[in-house]
């Protein structure tokens, strides 16, 4: 069954390949493999202090596992001190438990050519996650619908520099809460062939995600391989709720990846200092990954760090700040010392529109992700208004700029062709390189080129309507959606998925809470 599912995942044979060749080009780049060093801000002494203090927090202060007697029993059996819902973990125990988590793993896509390896020196880019609102040039800011969700999945599928379809790219509020996860998963499974994320809003929905993947990939394949990544947020400071942990338990038990991610707004959910925040982040991740491994040793787990600071006047979160960058750089170092893949960064901004503020803050946030050694970057495109809004125009702006991360990550090759000595000899003093043999041989691939931004002379730009970047992005959204072609899927698999969703929906009344 697993082998059959892999064959199905290749996209339907010759007819599908012919259809793809006749469609608009939307090549998907391979996940980034860094050939540049990570930027490190903490020396050995600082790292040891933070690690020691994190163990002290776990041992003396402890963490809460609320409304989850089974979790408390697991911790008790592992040697932790459990009083009520407070779990105090002896020094070194959490780190020892974390050691069974893999340093890297493959997340399989239904199209095997789009599977990704998370960890090591790799960077996998995934779109925005979770906004209840969407915005575009035509409709402005509004509550998200399932139609919006489908459009974002299509855009992600057609975006060259995105490696992953993501999860809740927006929250489709026109679908009942207890059923929308089924429609969202169907969209990822059928409208795209890239890897995707599972539902975490309730443990039974996590199980639905696993079961639907069993239909798509084959049950045996799912149990032996990772086909989903899921986001497990910690209620910082140091609280692990039963919903998130219940979903984690489902995914870990089924060998699916969990991002264990403190949700930090410095000054509100963590100390205002960088070192203090890093200490709390590490303590929370250690406890979360350790619990993940108590459920199933060897299950894939990712060291997560979602970090912003707070505006002390308004109370609003801020993004693209130097403090957030320092925390992210430091968290990357701590993750690598633990031997865990690292999730952080994204197209973060606090702006209400895809304007200059959004561009500055997003550029800062994306670059810190590349330089800090992030392995899985959720929210890499489409994020607006502190994560409340998924913006269509910003989605394609950000997705275009992700190409610069690919270019930077290549580093500087110094092979014979890159040294260009023959070109320098050929041109000599006072000449130019436009017509030389080296330029002619390399000009197509020498420089990264935006598919969105305008490089034309002023006169041409003016004649074409003097369009700004927002107008160009609106046009690109329309062009992509109008030329979208759905990837082929085995009809029997599609029928089985539709039957599963229909049966699940019929089994329960609609609920909007």
UniProtKB/TrEMBL annotation:
EC identifiers of the protein: 2.1.1.-
Keyword set, alphabetical order: Methyltransferase, Transferase
InterPro entries: MttB-like_sf, MTTB_MeTrfase
Protein name per UniProt: Methyltransferase
Transmembrane segments: none
Pfam families named in the record: MTTB (PF06253)
Top-level class of the enzyme under EC nomenclature: transferase
UniProt-listed Gene3D superfamilies: Trimethylamine methyltransferase-like
GO MF terms, alphabetically ordered: methyltransferase activity
Family (UniProt): Belongs to the trimethylamine methyltransferase family.
BP-aspect Gene Ontology terms: methylation
């Amino acid at each position: 069954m697993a082998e059959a599912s892999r064959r199905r995942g290749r996209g339907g044979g010759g007819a599908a390949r012919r259809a793809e060749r006749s469609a608009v080009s939307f090549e998907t780049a391979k996940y980034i493999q860094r050939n540049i060093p990570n930027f490190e801000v903490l020396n050995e002494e600082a790292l040891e202090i933070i690690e020691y203090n994190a163990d002290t927090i776990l041992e003396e202060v402890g963490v809460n596992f609320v409304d989850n007697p089974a979790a408390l029993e697991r911790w008790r059996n592992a040697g932790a001190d459990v009083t009520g819902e407070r779990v105090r973990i002896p020094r070194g125990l959490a780190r020892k438990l974390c050691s069974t988590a893999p340093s890297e793993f493959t997340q399989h896509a239904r199209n095997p050519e789009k599977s990704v390896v998370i960890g090591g020196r790799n960077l996998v880019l995934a779109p925005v996650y979770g906004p209840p609102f969407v915005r575009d040039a035509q409709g402005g800011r509004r509550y998200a619908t399932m139609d919006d969700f489908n459009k974002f999945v299509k855009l992600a599928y057609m975006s060259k520099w995105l490696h992953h379809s993501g999860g809740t790219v927006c929250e489709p509020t026109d679908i009942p809460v207890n059923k929308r996860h089924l429609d969202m998963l169907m969209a990822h499974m059928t409208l795209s062939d890239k890897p995707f994320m599972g539902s975490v809003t309730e443990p039974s929905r996590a199980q639905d995600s696993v079961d639907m993947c069993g239909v798509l990939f084959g049950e045996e394949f799912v149990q032996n391989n990772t086909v989903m990544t899921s986001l497990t947020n910690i209620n910082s400071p140091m609280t692990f709720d039963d919903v998130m942990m219940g979903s984690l338990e489902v995914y870990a038990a089924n060998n699916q990846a969990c991002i264990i991610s403190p949700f930090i707004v410095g000054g509100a959910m963590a100390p205002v200092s960088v070192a203090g925040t890093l200490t709390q982040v590490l303590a929370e991740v250690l406890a979360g990954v350790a619990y993940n491994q108590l459920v199933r040793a060897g299950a894939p787990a990712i060291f997560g760090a979602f970090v912003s600071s707070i505006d002390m006047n308004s109370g609003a979160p801020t993004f693209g700040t130097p403090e957030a960058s320092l925390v992210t750089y430091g968290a990357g170092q701590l993750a690598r010392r633990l031997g865990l893949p690292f999730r952080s960064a994204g197209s973060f901004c606090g702006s209400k529109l895809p304007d200059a503020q959004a561009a500055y803050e997003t550029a800062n946030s994306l670059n810190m992700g590349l330089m800090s050694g992030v392995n899985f970057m959720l929210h890499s495109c489409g994020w607006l208004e502190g994560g409340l809004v998924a913006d269509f125009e910003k989605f394609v702006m950000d997705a275009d700029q992700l190409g610069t991360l690919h270019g930077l990550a290549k580093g500087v090759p110094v092979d014979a062709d890159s040294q260009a000595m023959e070109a320098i000899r050929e041109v000599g003093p006072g000449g130019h390189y436009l017509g030389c043999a080296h330029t002619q041989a390399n000009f197509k691939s020498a420089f990264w080129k935006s598919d969105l931004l305008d490089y034309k002379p002023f006169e041409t730009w003016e004649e074409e309507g003097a369009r700004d970047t927002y107008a160009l992005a609106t046009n690109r959204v329309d062009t992509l959606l109008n030329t979208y072609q759905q990837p082929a899927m085995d009809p029997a698999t599609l029928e089985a998925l539709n039957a599963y969703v229909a049966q699940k929906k019929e089994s329960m009344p609609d609920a909007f809470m």
